[in-house]
């Protein structure tokens, strides 16, 4: 009964947010979100722990302005961090002392953290207004892999004077690295090694409520298209403000939001992901993406194929074929470590094993020892150093 009430409540929240989009992308970000206290940025958290943090902007070939953070290292070993879907660079620093970003910084690495188009830090364009122009939201992980990632990598290499970098990516971050290697082979030589946390390229074995969401995505997309709903859970949107109000209520918010809903998406683990860190996560996540991007992921699951966006009858015009081209993972030639959790409902062992067979240079493969390790534990687990970071650090040391 509680779960049913919770689903009805979130349906109401979504409808409330959608109604505002019935107007032509009116800026509804200046209403409820202004009533909430501000949350610290990546740079502010780094500064709090005594680290100098630099900030950079880079413009992609199609005009998106992306924001990057850098914690300069003592040695010229750049490590580039790339976040997952609906997330930001904040994901790599919210665990503070035990976070990946600060762990790497303490070891002297030159730490860079990127932000994909449309999120909290990269909601800008040279000509398009995200509050008024639907074209701003006409992208998926394909554009992130073919335009965002090259622009950010080139900036890092230019600023550091290096010809190669190492990388750590989570979830969608892994997807766009695979897209990059498969579509722009010249970038394979710029990447020494990629630590793939919760790798995503196939979604035919998802668990929890994800299979239902994947199958019903086309019907939901029709409704949202009619309402001109293009930005999903923007960082300053009404829906995110309401989610924060509900999910940050001490005790109740954790049981309702995490135990009752989010765990059905990512896997259930209250031991490593407790109420305190969950409140911190909800302050920063979700941080926005395009509806088209989420639909692209649903297509990957429905079609059981890691392929470009499916335009239906428009595929002939777009690609010159009836079906969208598949990404050829055999062309992803940089070295890769795959790190996954047995209790991850998104990046499942069966799906990662498909990826493993298709990638030519998998140099490490670890199903993490903790049996309840879920999709978020790669970023926020209480015992992050014990179960994951030791593997990542070992991989990076080899390069």
Please outline what is shown here.
This protein has 399 residues and is of the alpha/beta class. The protein has helices at residues 2-21, 42-48, 100-106, 141-160, 172-183, 210-226, 238-247, 252-266, 275-284, 291-303, 315-319, 349-358, 377-380, 384-397; strands spanning 54-59, 65-71, 78-82, 110-113, 165-170, 191-197, 231-232, 289-290, 335-340, 362-367.
Polypeptide structure, described:
The chain is of the alpha/beta class. It has a single domain (about 1-395), classed as Rossmann fold. The protein has helices at about 1-20, 40-50, 100-105, 140-160, 170-185, 210-225, 240-245, 250-265, 275-285, 290-305, 315-320, 350-360, 375-380, 385-395; strands spanning about 55-60, 65-70, 80, 110-115, 165-170, 190-195, 230, 290, 335-340, 360-365. The strands form 2 sheets. An 8-stranded mixed β-sheet has the order 1-2-4-3-5-6-9-10, with helices on both faces. Strands 7-8 form a two-stranded antiparallel ribbon. The longest helix has 20 residues, at about 1-20. The model is unreliable at about 1-30 (pLDDT under 50).
Mass-distribution shape? globular
Strand order in the sheet with the most strands: 1-2-4-3-5-6-9-10
What integer value in Å does the Rg equal? Answer: 20 Å
How many domains? The number is 1
Beta-strand share of residues: 5-15%
CATH topology assignment = Rossmann fold
Largest sheet: 8 strands, mixed
Task: Please identify the structural class as seen in this structure.
Answer: alpha/beta
Distance between the termini: 52 Å
CATH class descriptor name: Alpha Beta
Mean pLDDT: 92
Please provide the count of β strands: 10
Enumerate how many helices there are, as a single number: 14
